[in-house]
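Instructor's aside before we start: the two examples that follow are unrelated to each other. I chose them only because their records fit on one page, so don't look for a connection. First example below.
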Amino acid sequence: METKSRRQIASLEVLIGGTCYGANATMYKLAFAAGFSWPQVVAGQMIFAVLCFLALSLFDRMGGKVWPQSLCRQWQSWQALEC
């Protein structure tokens, strides 16, 4: 049985997903009106998504969340991280 807090979290996730979908459509409309082509818009969204993912990952890391050892080994080859 689901608790009330889990239902609230699920509702919030649906709301955020719908908001992102609406923002995505608006961004496409404005980008096309500014003269950008669809590959430029998609590449820009991809870069923005990667930057957001990296920022969230760093926040998790600073908050004490431990990454899996296999992921840490891969990162250690690029930069010095403590696992």
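Example two begins here.
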Amino acid sequence: MAFWTTVIALVLIMAFGFVRLQRCRHEVISVKTERGWKATGDRRVAVIDDSLPKSLPL
């Protein structure tokens, strides 16, 4: 009984953390948009050492 209670509690904590992370991310993006921030390219692309853009792993 205690094992399953712990498992369920951990799953709920992880789900709550994920939802909170996504909510904060959405708020940050909306604030940046309001202030005029614009992405210059794909969100999954980074420029390393001024070379060609390389895709980041997911």
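The longest helix spans residues 2-34.
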